[in-house]
Amino acid sequence: MFAHAQLGFPDLNLKLATPPLPSPYAAHHFEYLDNQTPIYLCCDCHSHITSYQAILSRTFQGRHGLAYLASEVVNVSQSVHHNRTLLTGRYIVANVTCKICGNNLGWKYVTAAETSQKYKEGRYLIEKARVVKETSQHKWDP
Ligand SMILES: [Zn+2]
Question: For the Yippee domain, which residue ranges apply (predicted)?
């Protein structure tokens, strides 16, 4: 059983060097990651998901091969928290899906049971196979 609620873990979350700007599309639950390139897009609907600056690791293992560990994502929905046992230990995770099209992108590490894995808490595993990299400055209207 996890007793995380009683423990005061330090906040290890890294903040983005350039936080996403307030989006005029927030009312439609769609955010742009302007001024951040490259950007990683949902492979199905090309919604912005995360950025180069938010990627902490490119060598994580997802369910579909290599995955990114990201400090911040946008335009996603999270499932209810549930227990999951992975190769590196036990976690409480929330599945992460594209808010626009429902594409299953990966999961959020909510709590890690192992002390050595605490750095993952609050971060996101994003499957490489579920995003595409957008390197141009091209922007488009929704
Ligand atoms: Zn999508």
Answer: 38-135
Ligand 1 center to 46 CA (angstroms): 6
Distances (CA, A) of 50 to 86, 115, 126: 23, 27, 9
Q: Has residue 82 been placed in a domain?
A: yes
Distance 77 CA to ligand 1 centre (A): 11
Taking only the tens place, the pLDDT of each residue in 82-117 is 999 999 999 999 999 999 999 999 999 999 999 999
Does the residue 9 lie in any domain? no
The pLDDT value recorded for residue 135 is 75
Give the Å distance between the CA of 138 and the centre of ligand 1.
Answer: 18
Residue-range definition of the domain harbouring residue 81: 39-133
The answer to the question of residue 89 being in a domain is yes
Distance 99 CA to ligand 1 centre (A): 7
Threshold 0.90, pTM exceeds: no
Q: Distance, CA 98 to ligand 1 centroid (Å)?
A: 5
